[in-house]
Design goal:
By secondary structure, the chain is an alpha/beta fold. The strands form five sheets. Strands 1, 2, 3, 4, 7 and 8 form a six-stranded mixed β-sheet that branches. It has a four-stranded antiparallel β-sheet with strand order 11-14-15-16, with no helix packed on it. A three-stranded mixed β-sheet has the order 12-13-17, with no helix packed on it. The protein is elongated.
């Protein structure tokens, strides 16, 4: 049956009810089938009759149906090619996609074209457009409604990781950015780290809670590895020890979002993109990570000082002050560290995450305790601290303290100039060796030992060397340096040193004179 236009519908009705034309004449004039003409005439008669019977009630739907353009009734029509078997196969592939997303394989899901090609290979006679329409219809049936929430002050804060590409210290790489956003006032805090590991996850919370002098009742996370240890059943998540430790120490509760439900922590989802753009769209080069974090903190402070139209033009800082009476009490910063037992190798170093850290050389072959912080590592043995190093994050990097090898260098002084330990000493110590101790390695090792045992700084040694240069510039030795260090309160100025030397010389000359006169007296007695 051919669909007619609205003006044709109007012409059919007027010819029938105003001119009294027959159905045959109307069909010939309009160019439509007689069955179509008869259908619209009967439909109009029924609608007019219903309209007259309603009375004073406004029949909106009935009026619209009378004047609307004619159209096909496709409500009961089904696609011919989309059989039940085809529909089941399409649903199967969509379920497989969902399973891969839950396993973290979102980049390996099938697209619509892949599903179409798979159906063709299975022998189904179906078009690509039909497959696309069917998939869209299935997915649209599963769309959910969102419920807008209102938040109580001090109740909820959301956390998420972001990623920023920066050039720090001349090296281009990606840095994780920890972002916190309060649900009540959109107060934002962010800090850059080197890795997304448990100790950095804990340190991020410690810095944030210290910055606001308290913490919220509930923290919200997605299914990140540093927060979720594993899944129990289908929906229940098991928290990591790092999260449990934070919860116990600070007293907050926590909850996790459903998988792929970023809207359940929408505040922080938007904050990651917002802070990243506002902070690093213009400036992305820094000398150090500390410089980058100071810059990021300044940007967050500016953002938190901006009025928010949806919050009665109050700033995030003002809203945080409203929350303060409801926050959990401020406590000292959480100590973010983990313990590991590690063995000292033949180089007197301990390897952690492919990096080497030196310890005193008498611990070779022993197992010691490593207390690992986000920015440093402390090594312990029998409850005592034996070494401390800044933490490294590269591959096969060596952090060597030359004072840890004094005992070995005393036995093998020739190994000093080409050693990794000597390569990592300060420029000042290298200059002392190169200027005064070349080919006198054993004497230089004794100087290092003295500096370690007496806790003497390089600057103190340089001061003493300057004094020695004024007295005897050609003979700089460890014994003289030690002598001058131990008696530096007595050795004050060059004039005093010269007076002391001249006084000693006079005393020696006097003694020598007395000896000569005594010899002459004895010779005189003998001659007589």
């Amino acid at each position: 049956m051919k669909v007619i236009k609205l003006h044709q519908k109007q012409e059919i009705i007027l010819m029938k009810f105003r001119e009294g034309a027959s159905i045959r004449a109307i069909a010939k004039e309009v160019g439509a089938d007689r069955k179509t003409v008869r259908k619209y005439i009967r439909q109009y008669e029924q609608q007019r009759q219903q309209l007259m019977q309603i009375g004073d009630v406004q029949p909106t739907e009935l009026i619209e149906s009378i004047v609307q353009p004619p159209k096909y009734d496709t409500s009961k029509r089904k696609p011919i090619k989309v059989t039940d078997e085809v529909l089941e196969r399409i649903k199967y592939y969509l379920n497989e996609n969902q399973s891969k997303r839950l396993k973290g394989q979102s980049k390996q899901i099938m697209k619509k074209i892949d599903i179409f090609e798979a159906l063709k290979e299975e022998g189904f006679n179906i078009g690509y457009t039909t497959v696309c329409q069917t998939i869209s219809k299935i997915l649209s049936q599963s769309k959910e409604a969102f419920i807008r929430e209102s938040y109580a002050p001090g109740d909820i804060c959301e956390f998420d990781w972001g990623e920023v590409k920066l050039c720090i210290g001349g090296v281009n790489r990606k840095y994780p950015m920890a972002v916190f956003t309060t649900a009540y006032g959109n107060y934002r805090y962010a800090r850059l780290f080197v890795k997304q590991k448990s100790e950095f996850f804990q340190e991020a919370h410690a810095y944030f809670f210290k910055s606001i002098h308290g913490n919220h009742m509930t923290m919200v996370y997605d299914n990140m590895k540093v927060a979720v240890k594993g899944f129990v059943g289908r929906n229940e998540k098991q928290p990591t020890d790092a999260l449990l430790q934070l919860s116990i120490y600070y007293g907050f509760q926590f909850r996790f979002c459903n998988a792929y439900r970023g809207n359940e922590k929408g505040h922080v989802e938007r904050s990651v993109e917002y802070i990243r753009r506002k902070a690093f769209a213009i400036k992305d080069t820094f000398d150090s990570l500390d410089d980058a974090n100071r810059y990021l903190e300044d940007i967050c402070n500016r953002l938190n000082d901006k009025p928010q139209p949806l919050k009665n033009n109050k700033t995030a800082k003002e809203l945080l002050e409203e929350e303060r009476p409801y926050l959990l009490p401020d406590v000292p910063m959480f100590e973010c560290s983990k313990l590991e037992n590690l063995r000292v190798d033949k180089y007197s170093t301990v390897m952690f995450e492919s990096c080497h850290y030196s310890v005193p050389d008498w611990y070779v072959g022993k197992i010691i305790l490593a207390k690992i912080y986000p920015s440093k590592i402390i090594f312990m043995s029998e409850g005592e601290k034996i070494a401390e190093h800044p933490r490294r994050f590269g591959f096969n990097e060596w952090n060597i303290d030359i004072y840890h090898y004094i005992r070995t260098l005393k036995k093998k002084p020739g190994a000093l100039p080409n050693s990794t330990a000597f390569a990592q000493v300060s420029k000042q110590i290298k200059n002392i060796y190169q200027c005064y101790y070349t080919r006198k390695e054993r004497d230089f090792v004794e100087l290092l030992q003295y500096m370690k045992e007496k806790n003497k700084s390089v600057n103190e040694i340089l001061e003493v060397i300057d004094k020695l240069l004024k007295i005897c510039p050609k003979e700089i030795s460890t014994s003289k340096i030690i002598l001058l260090c131990e008696n530096k309160n007595q050795v004050l100025t060059k004039s005093q040193q010269e007076n002391e030397i001249s006084q000693k010389a006079k005393e020696h000359l006097k003694i020598y004179g007395n000896l000569i006169s005594g010899i002459k007296d004895r010779q005189g007695v003998a001659l007589s």
